[in-house]
């Protein structure tokens, strides 16, 4: 496992174990730009979030705010859920898939 992969596992575990305090400095506030970049690459839900955002931006509707609210607040598997993304990163690391897969495995699925 390379340094970026080890780092993202560490960050994901910290976020899952974090207390989620709403005030003061958050767990992500101390992240470097590289940390943010590898989190985005490793998060299996990141593409879903980008697709959802792109759909809302490209096709705004009167109900877009309601759609976003339902997706973020009420969906069990929201593409915006950091906790679900972290669990996905941890599972991918365990099973060596996605961001943690070998080059050949990524190429051939």
Describe this structure in words.
The chain has two domains: 1-18 and 26-44 and 81-109, no CATH class; 46-80. Helix 1 (3-17) packs across helix 2 and helix 1 (3-17) crosses helix 5 (82-95). It has helices at 3-17, 33-42, 46-58, 64-74, 82-95, 103-108. The radius of gyration is 16 Å and the shape is globular. It is mainly alpha-helical and 109 residues long. It is 63% helix and 0% strand.
Number of helices: 6
Count of β-strands: 0
- The parts where pLDDT drops under 50 for at least 5 residues are none
Q: How many distinct domains?
A: 2
| Portion in helices | 55-70%
Mean pLDDT: 80
Biggest beta sheet attributes: none
Looking at the structure, what is the overall shape?
globular
| Pattern of helices and strands | HHHHHH
- Report the portion of residues in β strands: under 5%
Q: Could you say which structural class the secondary elements and strand pairing correspond to?
A: mainly alpha
């Amino acid at each position: 496992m390379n340094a970026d992969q080890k780092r993202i596992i560490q960050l994901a575990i910290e976020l899952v174990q974090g207390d989620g305090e709403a005030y003061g400095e958050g767990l992500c506030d101390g992240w470097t730009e590289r940390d943010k970049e590898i989190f985005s690459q490793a998060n299996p839900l990141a593409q879903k979030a980008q697709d959802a955002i792109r759909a809302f931006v490209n096709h705004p509707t009167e109900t877009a705010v309601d759609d976003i609210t339902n997706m973020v607040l009420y969906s069990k598997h929201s593409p915006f859920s950091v906790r679900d993304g972290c669990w996905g990163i941890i599972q991918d690391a365990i099973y060596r898939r996605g961001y943690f897969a070998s080059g050949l495995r990524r190429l051939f699925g």
